[in-house]
Structure formats: C-alpha cells, structure tokens
Amino acid sequence: MSKHDPKTGAFYFTAYDEELAIFIDTFDVMHSLKCVVKSKGNWQYVTAPTILKFGTNTKEEIDAEFEEALVKINKALALTFGKAPSTEPQTGVERVQWLLSNKVKLKNGRLTIG
Known about the structure:
Elements: E1 11-15, E2 18-27, E3 30-39, E4 42-47, E5 50-51, H1 59-81, H2 92-102, E6 104-107, E7 110-113
C-alpha cells in the first residue's frame, strides 16, 4: 500500500478525464484533505490542504475550513490538468435538465441547488 492510496471513507470521482480521490489524511497531529490521482495504476499526490487547524471547534468553523480546502483542491486540479471542460448548458430546457441532474440536493427535508 502506497502512502498516497485513498483511505477508508474516500470520495472517488472523475474530473479532467482522470480518476481522483479525496480523503482525510493524518500526519502526526495534523489533518489534511488529501487529493490524489490514479496514474498508470498508482495513486499520485495532487494536493493536501490542512483542515482542523488548532482551535477549530465549531460546526461553522469546520464547515468553513472544509469549503476553503475544496477551493484549494479545485485550484490545484485546474493547475495540474488545465481548465475543466464545461459540459454545463447555459440556456433553455437543456440548462434546466442539467440543474435537475447535477445540482438539486435534498438538505434537511428541503430541495436546494447545491
């Protein structure tokens, strides 16, 4: 097992025509949200923004750090693989169908765009 292999609970996804994973990684007492890409059968490091910094205690603080980490991961992916191809329709019924298929979420019993 490589030090970059995704850990239990990883989120696997495809972007930029690459197989990727994000998972919580711990080194000593530091935690990061590590992003890796599968290349030639092996998982390779992309980025690992720090999360759960000292003093992060509340739900709001943790959620803010998580969102900040995702922004950093998205920037690293764009730098590594180039601009993401857009398959997002801009107008018409195609846009509404895309929103239904890709953005509608159920949160606390309410439908949202997320």
